[in-house]
Amino acid sequence: MQKTLPVLIGTIFFSWSLISSTFAQQLPNGISGAFQADAATYKPDSLIGAPDVPEKMGLNSYMDLKYVNGNFKAGIRYEVYLNALQGYDPRYKGTGITNRYASYTYENLEITAGSFYEQFGSGLIFRTYYDYDLGYDNPMDGINIKYNTHGLYAKAFVGRQRAFFEYGPGIVRGIDGEVHLAEMFPDLKWGQHNLIIGGSFVSKYQADNDPIYKLPENVGASAARLNYTNGPLNLFAEYAYKINDPSLVNGGIYKPGQSLYVSGTYSKKGFGFNAAFKRIDNMNFRSDRNESVNVLNINFIPAISKNQTYRLATLYPYASQVNGEIGAMAEVFYTCKPGSFLGGKYGTGININSSNIHDIKRSYTGDEYGYNSNFFAIGDTVFYQDINVEVTKKINKNLKVVATYIYQTYNQTVVEGKSKSPLVFADVAVLDFTYKFSSTKSLRMELQGLWTKQDRGDWVFVLAELNVIKNLSVVLYDEYNYGNADEKLQLHFVNGGLVYNHNATRVALGYGKQRSGLLCVGGVCRLVPASNGLTFSISTSF
Amino acid sequence: MINSLKSVTIFICLIVFGYSHAQQVGKVIPSVKLKTLDGNFISTDDFNNDGKPIILDFWATWCKPCVNELNAIQEVYADWAKETGVKVIAVSIDDARTMATVAPFVNGKGWDYEIYLDPNSDLKRAMNVNMVPQTFVLNGKKEIVKHHSSYTPGSEEKLIEEVRKLIAGDTSKSN
Question: Rounded to a whole number, what is the distance in Å from the CA of A392 to chain B's nearest CA?
Fold first, then answer.
């Protein structure tokens, strides 16, 4: 309790300063920033599996401050973990300035020194980014230079990567070039055609201190990409190759890695189609070969499947497997016009999405290369499959309904690392109602069900969100595992909360129990343990 | 104990400093490169609505409240545009995972907005957008006059109210 006291005082103080200053007037030009704090108290609950947390409370927070003056920009971020919320890597511990940079732009040249976020192509060999909710932050600290002229866009960087309050042991170097042909050769008759080609190279250096194995100290990865558009049509392809890079994640094998991502979309008003293919083979790429999970990733290989957001649909979320997967996705968006048979008075929106992801086909060699794999052969092991059907319908002036049905096949053993668990087959249905009492007063309700014979069995979820008081939302929900084979575990996870929104400020207070599960944002996941207690969150920008 | 107390104090100072010295409202939007749906670059400097207000909306295909907000605005967009000349620019923060979905998604919904992509979150960071949806009302000089986060049904009314105030020549900075 002693330890939590200053944090509590701090929390109260900054909430106060925040609220009182919401009405402050602007001062010097050029300064802006953002602030967020999330606190939770923890009560142990052996039934739901909520652990006994010695410090009783967690707090994650950050503040960004930025300064812009003409072509000059600078910024810092200060982060606080006292202690980190449950489910975050415990190496997020303490406080400090984790991010600082200065940047100058002169005509077509931009130079950044310090922390930076950058991406080459779709990220197959390089992407650094920040996601506060996931505790994911892998910026480079070094220099980044960008230059463009007549349709040529070039980037180059050298840096070390952030890991918690330190830097990873590797040095990472990269160059990228992109040519926009229509911009470079404007005299050719392009019409609606547009063609962009690009290529990149990234290399990391990490000393080999291994007493037995001779490990590659410099690991290079290269990628080539192409983007062709023609009115409603958009085709994108990127291929990446990485030389041998034995690591903790790939089991120390010397096989080179490769990856291919292809997507094609066709759309015009009222209709959209999207299909994608992805093959990943041994593409773990980090600035420390001994790290895993979400730490020190140099590249970004997100899942190809739909990004689920309804609570029960996220019970079995897919996360891409960098050691190898092959998958495809197809999706259709369509709006039935008002007045048509399916459209009714206001029109009907339809979205169908399906993905199918397997292991790559492997024949194990027993040597240091690990396995051979035929590029387009599909492995026998199913990682994830789903089909999603979503219908959006406005019933009358006051009532809107979104109805969703999902069928999922989920490999717990591969995605969550559970030992020898059967594939989960789950049906999920969601009804999402929004009823407007008046132009600004409304009630939103979600009724969700998940039915499966595997894992924890059947679930229902009910949510009500009432917006009748200006700027204030009242939320109440219950997640109920009524079908658990173990009767003692047929538990309710009830939560209630208040959310206050005013301009750019959001304050939320909640109380209740949370089930354990994967929290995923943009295809990257974090395991969140069960918890029981009070949560408080404040976020704003200024 | 002393250490954490010190940290918390520094933190509070930072916040008080931040708050007493800054407000994003009143500033011109930063100059940042975004992508068009056909892969080209466009700078926020090129945002143009002939001196009339712009509503700048940060959203993502996977963000339900964002989609609800843009659906709600679509229903009244033609009326808004006729009444005030306002233009809605919707910036998607979808990353490599879902970026290809944006064009079919927008077309499938039949939205009439100007759509840009911010796959590396450059504009999102520059404008201190820590979550989506987040909406800015810009005046004819592309200065921020209102910044609103999150969406509840009907909160789009606040945006058009702000636009109407601008049109009526009321330049007082709403807070």
Answer: 10
Across residues A388-407, what is the average pLDDT?
95
Cβ–Cβ < 8 Å for B111, B128: no
B37 touching chain A per CB within 8 A: yes
From the list A523, A506, A516, A525, the residue with the least C-alpha distance to A135 is A525
Q: Tokens 């929004």, residue? A: A434
In contact, A21 and A509? CB cutoff 8 Å: no
DSSP string, B94-154: --TTTGGGHHHHHHHHT--SEEEE-TT-HHHHHTT--SSSEEEEE-TT-BEEEEEES--TT
Q: Could you say which DSSP state residue A127 is in?
A: B
Q: How confident is the model at residue B131 (pLDDT cuts 50, 70, 90)?
A: confident
- Tens digit of each residue's pLDDT (9 = 90 or more) over B78-126: 999 999 999 999 999 999 889 999 999 999 999 999 999 999 999 999 9
Contact residues on chain A for B172, CB-CB shorter than 8 A: none
Q: What is the pLDDT of residues A226-251, one digit of tens each?
A: 999 999 999 999 999 999 999 999 99
Please judge whether B24 and A542 are an interchain contact, meaning their C-beta atoms are less than 8 angstroms apart.
yes
Tokens of A542: 């200024």
Q: Nearest CA to A255 among A99, A117, A368, A142? A: A368
- Looking at this predicted complex, what is its ipTM? 0.91
Residue of B nearest to A467 (CA): B152
Asked whether residue B12 is domain-assigned, the answer is no
Of the pLDDT bands very low, low, confident and very high (cuts 50, 70, 90), residue A414 is very high
Could you give the CA distance from residue A280 to residue A259 in angstroms, rounded to a whole number?
Answer: 4
Residue B17 phi, psi (nearest 5): -60, -50
- Mean pLDDT across chain A, nearest whole number? 91
Pairing relationship of beta strands B54-59 and B87-92 according to DSSP bridges: parallel
Instruction: Quote the pLDDT of residue A10.
Output: 54
Q: How far is A267 from chain B (nearest CA, A)?
A: 5
On whether residue B11 sits in a domain, the answer given is no
In a domain, B89, yes or no: yes
pLDDT tens figures, A14-55: 554 554 444 444 445 789 999 999 999 999 999 998 999 999
Two structure tokens written together for A535: 């949560």
Backbone angles phi, psi at B163, to 5 degrees: -65, -40
A&B contacts, CB < 8 Å: 258
Mean pLDDT for the stretch of residues A147-171: 96
**B95 in a structural domain:** yes
Residue in A503, A520, A537 to test binding to B, most B beta-carbons within 10 Å: A503
3-state secondary structure of A321: coil
| Number of independent structural domains in chain B | 1
Q: Report strand pairing: B41-43 vs B33-35.
A: antiparallel
Q: Residue window 48-77, chain B: list those with CB within 8 Å of chain A.
A: 61-64, 68, 71
**Residue A10 and residue B8: Cβ atoms within 8 Å?**
yes
B100, A542: Cβ pair inside 8 Å? no
- A23 to each of A26, A504, B2, B16, how far by Cα in Å? 9, 12, 33, 13
If 0-12 CB within 10 Å is exposed, 13-18 middle and 19+ buried, where does residue A90 land?
exposed
B41 touches chain A (CB under 8 A): yes
Cα nearest neighbour of B113 on chain A: A269
How far off is chain A from B120, nearest CA to CA, in Å? 7
**What mean pLDDT do residues A295-319 have?**
93
* CATH label of the domain that carries residue B156: 3.40.30.10
